[in-house]
Amino acid sequence: MSERIEVADKVEDFALPDETGTTRKLTELLAEGPVVLFFYPAALTPGCTAEACHFRDLAAEFAAVGAHPVGISGDSVERQQEFAGKHTLGMPLLSDADGAIRERFGVKRGFTLAPTKRVTYVIAEDRTVLEVVRSELRMNTHADRALSALRAHRG
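Now predict its structure.
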């Protein structure tokens, strides 16, 4: 059984390719401010599209608190690129094709059709988790609660 990462835990650094095939490290992403890492089951599906587009639509609000959303799923780099382009997402979408990071965060699901749970982590610059949002069905909850946590953190 994989670990579950909770609020106040420290996240280990990791590196994954983004939708352009560029390797992105968590510590490098955090150098620009807190990261809202949202795991989603599958690119281009209705739920994930709604969720990612809500993050996109709140880009100015995230920028105002110095944070930036980063999507992550088991989709291939090519599929992430198609997803980002089709919806002009404007944020990194990481490809966790072998599921190693999904496993490390404890968001792996038993069945294979959608092996990644829909969970969002708000991660401070020092890799401490500020908030965890777990909701499979309320797509907008992820970005909304992440923003609330970031605003509270900035105080």
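The chain has six helices and seven strands.
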